Structure formats: C-alpha cells, structure tokens
C-alpha cells in the first residue's frame, strides 16, 4: 500500500539544536557545545537563577545577541515551504529557543522550551517580546517592577510549553519526523513513541544516530540542510508504508 503524499493528512515535526547548527548556532552536546562550556546547574535551572541571576542573564544575553548575526538555513526554509503547500494538519514543535523557524516563516510552531526573544515577569507573569539584554535591574513593561524579569525559557525541572497541543497532535499524526536532536531530554525524546502508538511512520533526520535511533522506522544521516529539503520535497511525495524499516547511510 503506498501512502502517497496526498494520503498523509497529519504530520508532526520535532526539531532540536542540530537544525540550527549550519546557521552557526551551537548545539548542546556535540564537541565544544553549550554544555561543554557551561554547567546546566549554573545557567539552566530555577535554582541557578535564584542563586546567581546575573550569570544566568549573561548566558542568555550572549545567545540572544547572537541571533542578529545568523539567518535561517535551507532546512528551516524547507519546513516553512512544505507547511505552506501542505493541505493537512502540520505542527512544528521545536526544542530550540532561537527564532530561525519563525524567521523562515513557519506558522504552526510551538517553542516547547521557550524563546530567547521573550521575557517573563515573576511578579505579574507578563510575557514581553524583547531583543535586548536582560539584567537584574530590568523593569517589567507591564507592572513596572524592577528586577523581576527572567528569560522566557523552560529550565530543567520546569514544565515545557504547549504540551497539551503537542500530545493531541501526536495522538492523530500519520508521520512524525525528528530533526537535529540527540533524544537526550524528555518529554521531547519520547514523542516518537507517542506517534508510533498512534500508528504514525517515524523518521529520524540527523547528523548521526540519536539515543533513540533504533526506534525510528526510517533513518537518514547527514546535514539537515541536505536531508530536510530532500525529504520534504521528494520522499514525502512518494512515501510508501514501509514493510521493513530502512536505514540510509
Ligand atoms: N544536521 C543535522 N543534525 C545535526 C547537525 C546538522 N548539521 N549538527 C548536529 N546535529 C545533531 C547532532 O548529531 C545531535 O544529535 O543535532 C543533535 C543535537 O543534540 P543536542 O546538542 O543534544 O541538542 P538537542 O537535542 O536539541 O537538546 C535537547 O536539551 O539541554 C537541553 O534545552 C536543551 O533543547 C535542548 C534539549
């Protein structure tokens, strides 16, 4: 039975830091990645922010500043183009806090780990769009309190964003594609299993096999800027329900 392009009605795509690597943004766990140069416990937990907010602001300010010097790559563009032309349900879930999917034009997009270009007030909970540095003296534009702003980022130990919408989409998707993620961090690392339970075909597009690689039906390895345009412009059109999982070099 072929599940040709026209037969797929619902797609969920998950991306991680690897899709932004060729735009020049660091990943977390590759050599010289963000977690090689910073300790999660010092910059990416609520306890770290309570202990040393200035250090946490410094870490996210540097990453926010970098956004003005990078642009979306062919992988981001290919996903946005596919979404524009796809008549079914398409949800892009990203673990990334950069704005490259947004700038590429992706619409139905959830930043499950938050966004560098947003702040959150611990006094009034207001979320504001920002593109400047945050400091321990920054003033909330809503309640005018000083020193109550944090990056609108989901830290370790906090609940990711959009989870109800994500699980609803996974429960009815027919195709799940994981791009540029090591599969190290839950709940994102478990999304492909939710999709499998729903009967979806699961695909991994990555530089090298992730921690969850063997669970995927189809696996392609290489740079996202080659794999993603290729997969979304050709393979999806001719996609057939594979009888046996196939691994591509
Ligand atoms: N093309 C495709 N994949 C790539 C490329 C590339 N050019 N470069 C790197 N990769 C792959 C790596 O092989 C790796 O599997 O991207 C993945 C990046 O893995 P991580 O650095 O662990 O990043 P990610 O999976 O997004 O981390 C998930 O962990 O620390 C938290 O909140 C953080 O959102 C992050 C989460």
Give the SSE layout.
Blueprint: E1 10-15, H1 18-21, H2 34-37, H3 40-43, H4 46-51, H5 53-66, H6 74-85, E2 89-94, H7 100-104, E3 109-111, E4 114-121, E5 127-129, E6 149-153, H8 163-170, E7 175-179, H9 191-197, E8 201-206, E9 218-221, H10 224-235, E10 246-247
Parallel strand pairs: 1-2, 1-7, 2-3, 7-8, 8-9, 9-10
Antiparallel strand pairs: 4-5, 4-6
Helix pairs in contact: 6-10
Bound molecules: adenosine-5-diphosphoribose.
The site of adenosine-5-diphosphoribose has 23 residues, from helix 1.
Can you summarize this structure?
This protein is an alpha/beta fold and 249 residues long. The chain contains 10 helices and 10 strands.
Could you characterize the architecture of this molecule?
- This protein has 249 residues and is an alpha/beta fold.
- Helices cover 31% and strands 19% of the residues.
- It has a seven-stranded parallel β-sheet with strand order 3-2-1-7-8-9-10, with helices on both faces.
- Helix 6 packs parallel to helix 10.
- The protein is globular and about 55 Å long.
- The protein binds adenosine-5-diphosphoribose.
- Adenosine-5-diphosphoribose (APR) binds next to helix 1.
- The site of adenosine-5-diphosphoribose has 23 residues, from helix 1.
